[in-house]
Here is the input.
Amino acid sequence: MSDSKKLIYAGKAKDVFETENSDEVIVDFRDDITAGDGAKKDNLQGKGHCNSLISSKLFEVLEENNINTQYIKLIKTGSMLSKKLDMIPLEVIARNIATGSLLKRFPFEKNQKLDPPIIQMDYKNDEYHDPMLNDEISIALGIATQKELDEIKKITLKINEVLSKFLKEKGILLVDFKLEFGKDKDGNIVLGDEISPDTCRYWDINTLETLDKDSFRQGQENVMDIYEQVCGMIVDEEDAKRWKI
Ligand code: UDP
Here is the structure.
């Protein structure tokens, strides 16, 4: 918990607190893990720490590549100081390999390479179970303008390029991932939320073993070991020292 700051939002695995600065918030990563629209739940000690370190590292990599993110700094493991954003209710999914729900919905071959990558937008809305959108529906619902949707797609493709390259060097294949964007106080589109094993599919580049939340979805026993392993692969020694882990 972040002192006695006011909670402004509680998600499935993160809490957002206000700060003295109205343009900034603190995002706390909790140990809760859910899958299947919240049907499967658990609490894995240390998961919040792992996800905060991985997200911070990946946000830093994106910032170095001129992509605007909410990230300001990690205050301590688990707690990220972030720009306050007005979130857009979209789950923007990029896919390099056909797996997961895509195989249930469409006749892709299992593990088919998707080049160019597919970008899919789902409506972030629990009541409607996050249905897939097209641009016209998003615009009619007032979720975003065509210009904003085009910009979100362009940024997502760039993020895919940057992260795929970075993670490949760490021995990880970036299979697919989900992003959430918001607008800052000047109306700029900025990447928010997190980029962690909860929101991405990471596969071991050699063995194609799962290094992400699919381990939990599949009911594996060693989920936390997998999160720690992937954290060690992404967060290098220098960062580990900086964050005193
Ligand atoms: N994803 C997510 N939150 C969601 C839905 C999907 O973070 O509510 C991520 C998921 O971890 C995967 C990618 O988006 O990396 C694509 O997920 P998919 O549509 O295949 O859904 P799933 O098979 O996870 O239900």
User: Anything to note?
Assistant: The chain has a mean pLDDT of 96.
